[in-house]
Amino acid sequence: MGLGLAISALLATFAGGAIFFARGRGATQRRHAGFGRTEVESALQCVLDDTQRHDDFDLFLAWPIDDPYLESIRRDCHEIVRMSPPPRRREDISENAKDQIRAILRDLRARD
Fold it and tell me: 74: closest CA among 17, 13, 19, 33?
């Protein structure tokens, strides 16, 4: 009887953890879906700045955006990164890819 209770408690713990992380994932997805021009500009600037980590850019690439124009930018950047691997180890992005992202950032800023 004790083993069955322990297994039930363990399964309940795993189920609770799964629900906790699924809710967090859903909240992140909703937040990213609502990204606006400012957040997209910040993510693009982040990947171009060699002095900071590219976490914002990585998150930007990971989640769809509701705004069709900003989503097209996200998809373009995803394709740029996929098709332009860095030339050296420990580099996140190639210079060619950075140039393409700079052009996208210029276009985004010019759209005001």
Answer: 33
Going by pLDDT thresholds of 50, 70 and 90, the confidence category of residue 20 is low
pLDDT single digits (tens) 26-45: 566 666 677 889 999 999 99
How would DSSP label each residue in 45-109? Answer: HHHH-TTS--HHHHHHHHS--SSHHHHHHHHHHHHHHHHS--SSTT-SS-HHHHHHHHHHHHHHH
Q: Which amino acid is located at 82 in the chain? A: R
pTM over 0.85: no
The span from the first CA to the last CA of the chain, in angstroms, equals 68
CA distances from 32 to 14, 35, 37, 68, 105 (A): 27, 5, 12, 13, 18
Distance from C-alpha of 93 to C-alpha of 66, rounded to nearest angstrom: 26
